[in-house]
Design goal:
The structure is a single chain. By secondary structure, the chain is α+β, with helices and mostly antiparallel strands. The protein is built from three helices and six strands. The strands form two sheets. A four-stranded antiparallel β-sheet has the order 3-2-5-4. A two-stranded antiparallel ribbon has the order 1-6. Strand 2 and strand 3 form a beta hairpin. The N and C termini lie close together (7 Å).
Length: 120
């Protein structure tokens, strides 16, 4: 063995997040809550996971506000395909839905996974 190390090409990954942000009652401050995160190497799974997060938010928090927009985005297959195509280009994807007293953001950000060194 010569001890040579071959570097494998960097592979893209996708960081998904569901965030809620809103004012803290009785103060002038804003709080940010991470509702969920996920990382995948698949541009197909990234919007699918966001859809699951959208349904989770709607099912648990919707009190008749604007959160129906999250469900509509999830159920719109053309929007899902468009999000997937957008993500595949390496661009970030954001879906921002304001509700009464809170804003929900679903996001996907492309990132490069760390290089892996493979001994020869």
């Amino acid at each position: 063995m010569t001890g040579d190390v071959k570097t494998q090409p960097r592979q893209p990954s996708y960081e998904c997040a569901a965030i809620a942000e809103g004012p803290v009652r009785g103060t002038d401050e804003t709080a940010r809550y991470v509702l969920g995160t996920f990382r995948t190497i698949s541009p197909v799974l990234a919007p699918r996971r966001l859809g699951g997060q959208a349904l989770w938010i709607v099912d648990r928090l919707d009190l008749g506000g604007h959160l129906a927009e999250l469900r509509a985005w999830y159920e719109d297959r053309a929007s899902q395909r468009a999000a997937r195509a957008h993500i595949r280009t390496g661009a970030s994807f954001l879906l921002v839905v304001p509700d009464e007293g809170c804003t929900y953001t679903l996001s996907v950000r492309a990132a490069l996974r760390a290089e892996q060194n493979i001994p020869q």
